[in-house]
Amino acid sequence: MKLKNDSINQVIKKTIVVTPRTSLLDARAVLLKHRISRLIVSEKDRPVGLLTEKDLVKAIYRIDAKPLEATRVSDAMAKDLVTVQEGATLHDCAKLMLDNKISSIIVLKKDKTLSGIITKSDLTSVFLTQATEPLPVSKIMTRDVITVKPADSLLYVESVLVNNNISRVVVERNRQPVGIITHRDFIPAKMPLWLKRFGDPSEVENYQMSANPGEYRSNQLSYLLTFIAADIMTANPITVDVADDVSSVSLLMIRHGISGLPVVRGKLLTGIVTKTDIVRAIVSN
Known about the structure:
Layout: E1 17-18, H1 24-34, E2 38-43, E3 46-52, H2 53-60, H3 73-76, E4 83-85, H4 90-100, E5 104-108, E6 114-119, H5 120-130, E7 147-148, H6 154-163, E8 168-173, E9 176-182, H7 193-198, H8 201-208, H9 220-226, H10 229-232, E10 234-235, E11 240-241, H11 246-256, E12 260-265, E13 268-274, H12 275-283
Parallel strand pairs: 1-2, 4-5, 7-8, 11-12
Antiparallel strand pairs: 2-3, 5-6, 8-9, 9-10, 12-13
Helix pairs in contact: 4-12, 5-11, 5-12
């Protein structure tokens, strides 16, 4: 897909930075407060690591892990960074993301200090404004959708995400999408479905944003077995039709802050379209 403007200057953005010595508890609080999915780890304005929601989830649910407040970002961050310099193209960034199976590229100045970051969300925005021709969802969607059931345990849901190396899973009932679960859903303290539905809003928020989530460290295996997909899923997910144009899908993703949408034919699940699929479309020009 050709773009009207292929310069990265239109999308480079600043991001929140932490140091390797920041505790995972503090890093979790930053992710939740700002509703972001990654933090650049920096020393003297030079990036040395990247901490994502997925890294945090893995650290939280390791049975042998230290308490979050005693675990440092350096213990969980990715250290093999993929970077580009100012002046690279969007096509370059899209190809690097696909080749390395990552969701962001760190942009450096000529002196190797941090300039900013480019994410799949940024490339999705570019597609919306810079695509030169229409493209139906059916051309880029993933047809083999990995799904779980509403009553599946969170232990099983977590294993599906990790073992298939995916960022989201569709919750389906009778071949109809009824929910979606991402790594972000595992980061706030999980709550029973009855509290989510009937609890006072302030009570729910306090439960989610607990500054000291001790439940993560108390009998984790039992905890994951106790809760089910319906407890943490986003119910009634936004869906798109196989005939919709990818530009309209991009708009939905940007407007609602989501990275993947179930694709339906009628009401039945037939695929999923993600920001990765849109990045792949950019590379295929």
